[in-house]
Specification:
about 375 residues; alpha/beta; eight-stranded mixed β-sheet; six-stranded parallel β-sheet; 12 helices; globular
Amino acid sequence: MKILMINYEYPPLGGGGGVATQDIARELARRHTVHVLTSSATGAPKKESEADCDLTIFRARVLSRNAKSTASITSMLSFYPFGIAEGTKLVKKYGYDVINTMFAIPSGPTGVHLSKRHCIPHLLTIVGGDIYDPTKWYSPHRNPLLKPVVKRVLSKADRHTAISHDIERRARQFYKFDREIEVIPLGIKMPKFSPASREQLGLDINKQYAITVGRLVRRKDLPTLIRALHLLQRPELDLIVLGDGPELDNLKAIAQELGVSTQIQFRGFVPEELKYQLLTQSDVFALPSLHEGFGLVFIEAMHCGLPVVATTNGGQEDFLQDGKTGFMVASGDPLALKNALARVLDDSEWAARSGEENKRLAEQYSVENTALRYEELLIQTCSSYL
């Protein structure tokens, strides 16, 4: 099969959605020809091929993309005309068998246009923020301009998949979509990294560490985590924050105001190996997001043997279990989050058992399994189009 995958974000741009596209593309490219159409990124070549598989990335020009972690509205809108222009050239040159678009918007309209214009079957993957984001005024589920666009993309795609049952439910709730949606969970490439001690990582052997990973955006609701740290009143506990984004200055200001700035390490984006080394040397993973489409970072933390403290609003409810994988609390409640963290930190034996169970559970969520599900669905999409 010749597969064209379309995602306006792809590493080094974006967050979990881009990383997931990359991992799935690499796995599919071991058995098929895979091309990825994405946005241009500063310092990244317009065309890039990977040596160990049949994968090529093509980057279309977009306007006003100044940050790796977040996209401007202008850059998302401009992906449509520039993506169509670049995609048309690719379709004419390579003749794809199937298109897989990640995100109903801003990628979806490009995928729909190329599919209908060139009679190529189209699989749409619904990811999360493309149909629902409670923190953005322009979230499509309540925006009168974007909601019809999402509905049209949903109606014009030939097959549909969502990354969690939460996203499937929201597609039906907000867009009245009644066709089949196959839920295919995301997965990670099981990491290989050299172990590192706390001393090697600059951590104190006498402290406890909570850790969180992700883009510093409003949806992650890290102010609630900082307030929970303040409520804990534990000078022996530090918080490690991995990631960057537009909320960084605000988070630092909140930490300073609450008097816990000396207990927080803002480390920014770090290499994958260092991320996993820090995860394995921490005591608990915490992320109080207002919503997650799936939450790959939870799987990464579980793979490292960490109990997870999370909120109950999102795709993570497909695999996190309160009292087993860690604890789940209502979003926006620092006191509940504080109590959940205390329960983990005060019972090291329970935390160790939870961490071991999480390791076993995380093995089910491999990118190899995800790619096999996608491969099957892509073949079905091609067959049903004939």
